[in-house]
Amino acid sequence: MPTTHLVFDLDDTLYPERDYAIGGFKAAAAWACAELGVSVDVDAMTALLDDGHLGQLFPKVLRAARPDHSADDLRAFIRAYGQHTPSLFLFADAADALDHWQPRVNLGLITDGHAPTQQSKINALALAPRFRKIVLTGALGPDRAFHKPHPHAFEIMQATLTKVGAGDRFVYVGDNLAKDFIAPNTLGWTSVHIDRPAHRHHRIHKHTQAAAGGAPHETVSSLAELITLLD
Ligand SMILES: [Mg+2]
After folding, report:
1. CA distances (Å), 73 to each of 35, 49, 61, 77, 78, in order?
2. What are the structural domains, with CATH classification, of the chain?
3. N or C terminus: which one in the chain shows less Cβ crowding within 10 Å?
4. What is the pTM of this model?
5. How far, in Å, from the CA of 159 to the mean position of ligand 1?
6. What is the mean pLDDT of the chain?
7. Rounded to the nearest whole angstrom, what is the distance from the C-alpha of residue 18 to the centroid of ligand 1?
């Protein structure tokens, strides 16, 4: 009897990544206030984020608050964002779905990003006890070498959760059409796009384009729908 292994992406799949970013903006603003004596507008940072400018917003807002800041100031400002201890909550449908599946199937997590940052999110959400296997692609090699769509993390997951040739079913659930589904599609997994209508405009990566070979097999608007789909 083939076993089902259900593997999730983290950011914007299980919790709203925007919440992590806003918490980080507050930490960066607190650093700027304490160390430079300037006021940085967290709402302005959030507006830039929502317009798709996460990459450039730190130099932009620090320059506005303190035009004569040094390169070290900018580095410390960004570090305050990246090293803050987040306070996060699962999407309600994600919490329910994990409760539903945890006793029934093997759960896995594959997430891209700076590994200590991703670990801090996992800690904030108390996810470690829920998953049989967690792969932080940022910990597999330098310079994002094994970030999705690289298949290495998916191969590790397969090798960890099942015996070779067991014919088990693997499912990957993610939100990012640009990178999440290419590797699982190639490996014969079922790929599922989670697209919550109420959250669609708050996704961090909403400006990314769909990738060739990366179309998901299924799209669901909540993880409650996934329960119906898989059961
Ligand atoms: Mg994601």
Report:
1. 9, 21, 12, 6, 9
2. 4-15+91-230 (3.40.50.1000), 18-82 (no CATH)
3. N
4. 0.93
5. 23
6. 94
7. 11
How many Cα atoms within 13 Å fall on the side-chain side of residue 111?
Answer: 27
Q: Once rounded to an integer, what is the mean pLDDT over residues 174-202?
A: 94
Q: How far apart are CA 165 and CA 228, in angstroms?
A: 27
Structure-token match 């993880």, residue found: 223
Q: Ligand 1 centroid to 12 CA: how many Å?
A: 5
Compute, in angstroms, the gap from residue 176 CA to the centroid of ligand 1: 6
Closest CA to 10 of 124, 140, 164: 124
Query: Is the pLDDT assigned to residue 61 strictly greater than 90?
Result: yes
Average pLDDT, integer, range 77-103:
96
CA of 71 to the centre of ligand 1 (A): 30
**Token pair 């990003």 is at which residue?**
113
Mean pLDDT of 166-188: 94
- 3-state secondary structure (DSSP) of residue 162: coil
Query: Rounded to the nearest whole angstrom, what is the distance from the C-alpha of residue 165 to the centroid of ligand 1?
Result: 29
pLDDT at 201 exceeding the cut of 90: no
Query: How many angstroms does the Cα of residue 167 sit away from the middle of ligand 1?
Result: 27
Centre of ligand 1 to C-alpha 203, Å, is 9
Q: What DSSP assignment string belongs to 36-92?
A: I-----HHHHHHHHHTT-HHHHHHHHHHHH-TT--HHHHHHHHHHHHT--------H
